[in-house]
Amino acid sequence: MLSAADIDREAIINLTSSQWADGEQYEPVRLMTHGQFSYRERENVWNVTYDESDATGMPVVRTRLSLFPDGRVVLKRMGDVDMEIEFVKGDQRVEQRHTPYGMMKFSVLTHEVRGEMTEDGGNIELGYSLGLNNRHAMSTKLHLEVLPDKNAMP
Fold this sequence. Notes:
Helix content is 0%, strand content 69%. It contains no helices and 11 strands. The protein has strands spanning 7-21, 24-25, 29-40, 45-51, 61-67, 73-79, 83-87, 92-99, 102-118, 121-132, 135-148. Strands 1, 2, 3, 4, 5, 6, 7, 8, 9, 10 and 11 form an 11-stranded antiparallel beta sheet that branches.
């Protein structure tokens, strides 16, 4: 049930992803997309939701980032790719997953988690390193700028 303090708004999301591996930095990926942002007073959580595209290599995937008051961020992808990762600064998550290539051990070490959202939009930043089978694979810095879509406002 929605309360008077709940927020649901259409958004323009500017996403920048910078990645590097083995001392080599790759060209940043910049994407502007439409999505939604919402606040649920009962859960005290901000959600930013958008559909991935061909540009990200995941055309049939919906992504949701949830920003909690304790500073953690949960990224959930649903569709052709189903996954959920919780980012807590200084935390390392390790799990095994079955892949088309067999069982693989994944680890995510979170270096940075920041977020600030209001009814006027906000920002979420993540910095993390991904490891596969006990080897560093890639480091990523992800920045989302969330702006209300003024064309969608009543």
